Amino acid sequence: MESYYLDWVNLLLRWAHIITGIAWIGTSFYFVMLDNSLEKPQDAESLDKGVGGEQWAVHGGGFYNMQKYAVQPKKLPEHLHWSFWESYSTWLTGFALFTVSYLWNASTYLIDRSKMDWQPGTAVAVALAFFVVFWIVYDGICRLFGRGKHGDTIVGVLVAVFIALASWLACHWFAGRAAFLLVGAMMATTMSGNVFFWIIPGQRKNVAAMRAGKPVDPVHGQRGKQRSVHNTYFTLPVVFTMMSNHYSFTYTHHYNWIVLLLIMLGGAAIRQFFVVRHRFKLGNARNPLPYVLLGVAVLGLTIVWMRPAPVAASAAVAAPAEVAFAEVRHVFDQRCLLCHGEQVQMKNVRLDSVEQIGVHAQAVYQQVVVSKIMPMANSTGMTDDERALIGAWFQAGAKTQ
After folding, report:
1. Contacts of 351 (CB under 8 A, 6+ apart)
2. Is 94 in contact with 192 (CB distance < 8 Å)?
3. What is the Rg, in whole angstroms, of the alpha carbon atoms belonging to the chain?
4. Residue 251: pLDDT above 70?
5. Which residues contact 151 (CB under 8 A, 6 or more apart)?
6. Sorting pLDDT into bands at 50, 70 and 90, what band is 185?
7. 312 Cβ neighbours under 8 A, 6+ residues apart
8. pLDDT per residue over 204-221, tens digit each?
9. Closest CA to 29 of 73, 72, 86, 68
């Protein structure tokens, strides 16, 4: 029963996380597009008001005029829209989902004992340390180099190196699926940290200064803009890590940390294309096509590099011509009932009876034989011969008699 309710909590949290994530990413992408699409106003009234750039748009049958002030408007309106709950809600639901899915069941989902044979409490503490340490190092890099000469380039290189190190450590310490998600959650935590510690506080200081009739310190806007730009480049890599658990061929690769880095690099390059594209349309930047070509090339070469080697017929694992159900059930009893028995029923799947095995036969074939996701991190030591046995049984009709 506990597993059943945990599955529902997982489902509802995942649903909320996706919804809030869409809202946050959509808002972020929109404002990046808007900032890079602004044109100098042509009418004297807008110039007199201090408008530094504007965009005219048509949407849903109406016309919109978005204006950005160079420093501040002459008069601040009473009501301002603040964009922060999209970020906070995404992080809160994401962390809750990570807790329920990985930290709560660390022995099953977080730990791969062939890599690190540590206790669940230790694994959870180290996983959480990734969030804290990455934020401290990232924030320190931005503080030290962000405003100096070639600051953006230096920060970008140093942060990329640190992400590479974190990816290597995660993939060598944790189960592959958990490692990918952990790196993404680490970056997403920093994205939300940028909003919480820098972007919103800086905006609040500017608004307070305006309402008090004091001059606005432009450094707050500069810092907020820098962190916002970092967030937009993190976005596509983070989204990939969030969906990677559905594609075991990525995180089960022998060099899975390199796979992770290459796919994140491709995503960041493609995001750069869209960022520059808006300025290119106004004649303020070079053609961004090389960025998307780079991203596609990185992804394409990664696909080619990862392709499985052809298996000679003689090298294939031999499966018996006829499979007795008793043999298959013996494998289930040994390898699967730890998580799918009477006491624990992960994902509401039971394999402790003939009837339940018949109900879940197709799912078992997909998870155990095709994708080889199960058993999770192969914690029960299922062999290739046993997988071939289940595959032959299923292909012969999955008979339970």
Report:
1. 332, 336, 337, 340, 341, 357, 360, 364
2. no
3. 26
4. yes
5. 145
6. very high
7. none
8. 998 998 888 888 888 888
9. 86
